[in-house]
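DM from R.C. (forwarded with permission)

"hey, sorry to bug you on a friday — could you get me a structure for this? deadline for the figure draft is monday and I only need the backbone to look sensible"
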Amino acid sequence: MTTACIARILRVSFLFAGWTGFLLTAVSCGGSDIDIPDSYGQTAPDRNPGSGSDPDPDPDPDPNPDPDPDPEQVTLTMVDPAATAETQALYSNLWTIASRGFMFGHHDDLWYGRYWYDEPGGSDTKAVCGDYPAVFSVDFGPLMDDRFDREADMRENEIRRRVILEAYERGEVVTACCHLNNPLTGGDSWDNSHAGVVKAILDESTAAHAKYMEWLDRVADFANNLRGSDGRLIPVIFRPYHEHTQEWSWWGAKCTTEEEFVGFWRMTVRYLRDTKGVHNFIYAISPQMDAVYDDPVGRILFRWPGDQWVDFIGMDCYHGRNTAAFESNVQAMVEVRGPRHKPVGITETGLENDHKADYWTQDVLRVLRGEPCAMVVAWRNDNPRHAYGPYPSDASAEDFKLFDADEWTLLERDLPDMYSMPKNVTVK
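My reply, with the result:
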């Protein structure tokens, strides 16, 4: 049995019983507008204070009592009924964890940061608060498209694989977007110069279709060989065609019809699941939700592929300092969660190099506290001019420590075993 497996068993025995045992490490820092209970972070009272403290002590107390021996039973449905056991478990935990808090994530956090690149154990998040993100976000585009066999990208794809393995071994959750190059023009993801890209891909007689199938073959090969030290396939929240509501990408609203986008989504799922045998993907959709909308629920469901084709509902919300937009869109996402019976989360967000001192507690935590949202993922810290997540010299670094210390915010140390099935959930 590996160290990681043992660690997971230990986490389960303490943290997972009844979903009540999250252990948070408080971080001592300056004041904040966030109310933290007076007892938070204090040393627990002695369980054996002496004979005079309890005239009738329990001779064999349960150190981890379950306050709810009969939790509400939940049945979830996945896009892939043949999903691996760990993928089903992760999916179930994405639903149940939202009742306890939200997982903080950061794109490419383990790979590079504001002032470093490919340093073992590196993480801007950890450099601020001493802990890794609960969610590690990564981009699968360069391992799928024409960059696949370029020497520089081949080296980076090896790093990509390594840091995914590192995240999984620590018990973190892995999610992947796809900034794919344009298969018809050869441009990048933002090349929307041709309105017929998806139409061409859907036509099996075209060169664009053949090329795109090769791209899907590559991600299928990557997924089917992505295994932890325990030999099990690593589950991934797969998030293709993100921000399809916007107009700047070749799969977005400007370049596709509703029929084309829905067909494109279903073709992708069907090919990976049924033809290539990929059974460790959780399929996530993530519309772009940056502003206050007249019909935010309608925007979330824009070009909806169908309940049976989507597992997870995310949103990419770059609202800047417009917290009203963030609040409105979070509420809409939560509104969709219930009737669709699917976990939800913020899959991309953050301010680029413009963090106010209380950004994390007031602009993020204040909005998400108490909401059934599984995650919030900050975009990457790529260089001194392109940083969305926390880093030590940022104006909000001390505030991020308060953000981390709050019981509703979950980083890696706070997670239950995300790859073991909660006792009250059934997946079909």
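R.C.: lifesaver. The domain at 3-29+64-427 is CATH 3.20.20.80 (TIM Barrel).
me: no worries. Residues 151-169 form the longest helix (19 residues).
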